[in-house]
Amino acid sequence: MTEQREYLEEERVPEHSGTNHSMAIGFYISALVLIFGITLVLAGMLTPGQQTEGDLGFNVNLWWGLVMVVSGCVILGMTLASPRRRAARQAGNRS
Amino acid sequence: MTGLALLQSKVQVNDTWLDYFIIAVYFVFVLGIGAVLRTKMQTSEDYFLSGRSLPSWITGLAFLGANLGALEIMGMGAGAAQYGIMQSHYYWIGAIPAMVFVALFMIPFYYASRVHSVPGFLKLRYNEATRGFNAILFAIFMLLLSGINMYAMALVFQLLLGWSLTASIFLSAGIVLGYVVLGGLSSSIYNEVLQFFLITLGLVPLVVFGLIDVGGLSGLKESIGKPEFFHVWANTGSTDNPFAVQWFYIVFGLGLVQSFGYWCTDFLVVQRALAAEDLAASQRTPLIAAFPKLMYGVLAIFPGLIILSILPNLGANDPNNAVPYAMAYYFPTGMLGVGLTALLAAFMSGMAGNVTAFNTVWTYDIYKPYINRDATDRHYLNVGRIATVAGVALSVLTAYLVLGFASIIDYVQVLHGIFLAPLFGTFLLGMFWRRSTGWGGFFGLVAGTVTGLTMYLISLDSGLGASMARAFWAWIVCLAVTIAVSLLTQPKPDSELRGLVWGLTEQKEAKEKAWYKKPWVLAVTVLAITVALNIYFW
Fold first, then answer.
1. Residue A18 within a domain
2. Which of B115, B316, B382, B495 would bridge B120 by S-S if both were Cys, CB 3.0 to 4.6 A apart?
3. ipTM of the assembly?
4. Domain of A77?
């Protein structure tokens, strides 16, 4: 971790307004994926048996909705746990 | 037309309010983030490069997101329906080696010289005429590409809403314009990363469910009944293969010229790497993008094959709709909304990318040097916005050009062969041969472009094999003319070439301590997987 910080300081270009973009992007994406996932899960539970020509015999909305909810949680978790966020928090505590 | 109607009657689109709700949520997100970010964008540097502050996983996914436009999703699916699994050459040999090359060799150059655009590099390395010629070509190229995204988006609306193509095109134009005016472009990196996830989450179930339905790879082969559609290299010793082209043009026309030309010089993509926080992260950007790119060789190709098992004649009749039809066939309402959102996201961000590139080139490489040299930063920002609106309007016209081609992918490859292949020759010599001169570069680029265009106009053959061959010859002519003219003209002094030519550039060594982040580790890994995939699907 310390090694990485040193390296970043050395090569860093002047900071712009975009410094916190990486966290914001993580939240943005996980929010949308979670909303889509939850919508699909609800649709799957409330209106089961939706027919399509290529009916596969299982509840597509429910299962893929669950996959999306899990994906959204993983992206959110990675964003929250990212070293950058921790570093930012540490810097915030110090000042 | 009856054939087409028959085709469509087999795939009904059962969309409900739920799908519209999902699409609406997506637009609220995209426009919302654009509005929030717009207030934070102060300088034009911010606007175009996001302040060079992003970590490599974000720039890597954005790099790929910028590449995954209509071409990648609907175009590759269409190509698979026309040509079979050979289409994945565009992902494997036609992308991975070039992405590795960009990471290892091109990014340090771009990073050190801090050019805004390819024309910027051409001016420093060659001369004003080369830069000007390329800037104008590039602006045209971007408008033509943007029309493809517009057309693809219109096809989805046509399918979804049942409107005419023209009405759908105008709806798409309105949406894209609204997106841009409300600040969508300022969030293009956000949306490119988002789009990567949406497309993945939309295409994976399509491939998985489709393969379950047809009984796996072997079931798919049986139900399509075209064994040649399942080989990437078989029979490329002759032209008796779906591309109707020999291995030589696949390797050199596609793998070398078209692919390197695209990845090295399409700065819409390169720009994403330059937005990374430091040199090491910039270098890593294309390599990080290369891994999902490999996977898309399956994800984007298979829907086009799977739908052939249901609509066997799609490849000849209406290949552009392969992926939307596959979605309509397998996805119930709800999932359908997610899948269509993924497509719309791709077209939206693809078009946003084209339009951003158009406005950058117009503003910095045409307007600023030739029309109004000394204006304020704010003035150029406004010019960029006006260029964006004009770009969308012109894209409506170019969208109709696509109708003249068998499929989107055919059209795109015609454009790549003419616009990118000669440019790659100019680049290669500029970077690696210090003897090449300003006028050498100019005449080489003009000769190469004219060659590509003439070969196309004579044959009017827009098949993929023809495009590969055309790209190769346009490149060769560009190289030959550049070398010949360079030898007849005065070379530039070394002092002017510093930072522009390999060997005269003090490149900073990107220090990267973690072994798994080292560029060559990533490069070797991704190349090894590429070879393995080619062997598996030989």
1. no
2. B115
3. 0.77
4. 23-48+56-84
